[in-house]
Amino acid sequence: MYRQDTIVAISTPIGEGAIGIVRMSGEKSVEIGDKLIIFKRGGAIREMADYSMSYGQVIDPFDGQVVDEVVVSVMRAPRSYTREDVVEINCHGGIVALKRAMDLAVQLGARVAEPGEFTKRAFLNGRIDLSQAEAVIDVIRAKTEAQLRAAMQSLEGGLSSKIRNLRSQILEVYAHLEVAVDFSDEDAGALPTQDLIQKLGECQKEAGKLLADARRGKILKEGVKVGIVGRPNVGKSSLLNALLGERRAIVTSIPGTTRDVIEETANIQGVPFRLQDTAGIRDTGHEVEKIGVELSLKTMEEADVVLYVVDGSEPLTKEDLEIGRKLGSKKALVVVNKVDLPVVAELDQVRQVTGERKEIRISATKGWGLEDVERGLVELVFAGELRCLDEAIMVNARQKELLEKAQRAIVSGREALEAGMSEEFAAADVRIAYEALGEILGEKSGEDLLDRIFSEFCIGK
Ligand SMILES: Nc1nc2c(ncn2[C@@H]2O[C@H](COP(=O)(O)OP(=O)(O)OP(=O)(O)O)[C@@H](O)[C@H]2O)c(=O)[nH]1
Ligand SMILES: [Mg+2]
């Protein structure tokens, strides 16, 4: 259960830095801080105003040695991250001083915090709900601005308020259904079944929209896997480098240069595209290259989108066409490279295997056509709905499962009513939906669930 003890952690990354922060939260943090820190101008943390800072030294109270020069701030309950008394000690960012300050706080009665325990306390003390607490991880891990925006929306309660709205609509339906069950013969003010069916239809739509926004959030978070494939020497690695704007992969005129899959993320219109350069696909007796080719085929299979690269400056080979055929039903762009040289490849034959897929002519070395490739990728993945990315929400696996459960229960409740079954059945379904949404907000969450969620956090958060 929730412990009232005082926790301490180094809240900044471990390593050299300009400053490093030791953070304490709990009833005794001011008292412990006062035993640990001496201010140059006298005074003590207990005398400091809320949200103010003071300059002092961390002194080892057991041997009187100066540990570090520090700036201390204090935020008292309930106006703090955890809603408890919080003391933050800004040390010089060296690991030895930070560790020593933390160890001393422990010797004076604090306990080393578990990962995410500060945020867990913020949740347990009612400052944020569970979906907001979970958003903190997404904010920390955001790799692009669009990701950050979506995560911040959840942190600020965007997801919670949508869930709460949906939940209150569901509650209304539930109340009417219960009235109908309890007072079946009288007119007790329950809405007609037809109205309830309609209301559940609206809830279903709302849940569907949340799930669609969540799918976009997932793309923002995990990125789009793009497999760059083709036969050896067509310029796959050159294309990777050109899209990244740096020399990441080795490029040579020797076919079979790339052996391993090289993945780098490019930020295209705010969306992370995980570009995967692969070994050129061909029949080969060379053992290392053979493994590379197997990896290429696997990458192609697992990609969300494929960039199928051919060399426009040379006649096609049977490998080119074989790879084209392997695209199957994959989303892909046909990239004709090396168009700075005369185009001699029989592109008609390519089109026969690639069908309707868009063809883009580029020169990876001259940087021609790269924007077309980027635009093509975005169009292929979002089919013109990139605008909707602003409405993307970050939903983790746990939240998604619960949303889907609620959605299923709403559908089943509506169907029960439509089939003319007794209101009891619909009421049971609607109740399941209501509870599933409550779980997203963290109502009635058991200790193991909380442990699992917060253990993903970094220490000191
Ligand atoms: N003229 C011209 N040459 C290019 C272009 N793109 C790549 N090349 C050259 O083609 C050769 C092969 O390029 P890579 O990028 O290594 O080709 P790859 O497809 O990664 O080859 P593997 O790793 O062997 O499968 C190099 O000599 C590049 O300089 C281009 O747009 N124009
Ligand atoms: Mg290569």
Automatic annotation (TrEMBL):
(6S)-5-formyl-5,6,7,8-tetrahydrofolate binds at R23, E88, R127, K461. Mg(2+) binds at S237, T258. Gene3D superfamilies: P-loop containing nucleotide triphosphate hydrolases, Probable tRNA modification gtpase trme, domain 1, tRNA modification GTPase MnmE domain 2. Binds 1 potassium ion per subunit. K(+) binds at N233, T252, I254, T257. CDD domains: trmE, TrmE_N. One of its GO terms (molecular function) is GTPase activity. Its main location: cytoplasm. PANTHER family: TRNA MODIFICATION GTPASE GTPBP3, TRNA MODIFICATION GTPASE GTPBP3, MITOCHONDRIAL. Belongs to the TRAFAC class TrmE-Era-EngA-EngB-Septin-like GTPase superfamily. TrmE GTPase family. HAMAP family: GTPase_MnmE. This is tRNA modification GTPase MnmE. The lineage of its organism: Bacteria, Bacillati, Actinomycetota, Actinomycetota incertae sedis, Candidatus Hakubellales. The gene is mnmE.
